[in-house]
Amino acid sequence: MSAQALTASMEKLLKLHKSLYELAVKKTEIVKQGDIESLNKFIQQEQVHITAIEKVEKERQAAVLRLLPQMENPTVTDCLSVLKGEEHHRLHELSDQLMETVFELKERNFLNQQMIYHSLQFVNFSMNLINPQPESYTYGPPTDKQNHSKITQGIFNSKA
Fold first, then answer.
1. Which carries the bigger pLDDT value, residue 53 or residue 152?
2. Compositional bias (Polar residues) at which positions (predicted)?
3. Contact 92, 80 (CB under 8 A)
4. Predicted confidence band of residue 147 (pLDDT cuts 50, 70, 90)
5. Model-level pTM?
6. What sign does the dihedral 46-50-56-60 (CA atoms) show?
7. Most buried in the list 24, 25, 66, 128, measured by CB within 10 Å?
């Protein structure tokens, strides 16, 4: 029974991660377009997926503990050594697919992160072109208050 629960939770995790990957692909297009409102909506949808993944991950951990109660922190790989036949094959297949999907998701998220970073750099550059920060190229008194107070109290301010 716990092997079936583990397989079911792995199937749910795989489905959720694939759906999250599809969102990440769509997010790439939205970042390219620069549509901030749609980007916010996708981020909210990602948060819903992440919450669901966390819930299913707890279910998976509970199923693994039921399957291998003697181990302290059993993994899916540990379960594979216990299972035989079709259950072993199915769990191994799901595990491989999930690892591949997570890897692809990680790569896509890195791409999105880089694109957003470069977009922000471009926005900052554009803002600096429109509103440049004034720089003083002429001689003037120092703006540091500590240095200013030291300069005004020189030997010429002393009483004779």
1. 53
2. 149-160
3. yes
4. low
5. 0.73
6. positive
7. 24
**Radius of gyration (C-alpha) of the chain in whole angstroms:** 29
Instruction: Check: CB of residue 17 under 8 Å from CB of residue 109.
Output: no
Angle at 78 between CA 74 and CA 84, to 5 degrees: 135
Distance, CA of 135 to CA of 110 (rounded, Å): 37
Six token digits for residue 129: 């072109």
Number of Cβ within 10 Å of residue 160's Cβ equals: 2
Cβ contacts of 53 within 8 Å, gap of 6 or more? 13, 16, 17, 20
Tokens 């792995």 locate to 10
Give the number of domains in the chain: 1
Whether residue 100 is contained in a domain is answered as yes
Read off the CATH number of the domain in which 70 is found: 1.20.58
Range of the domain at 67: 2-133
148 falls within a domain: no
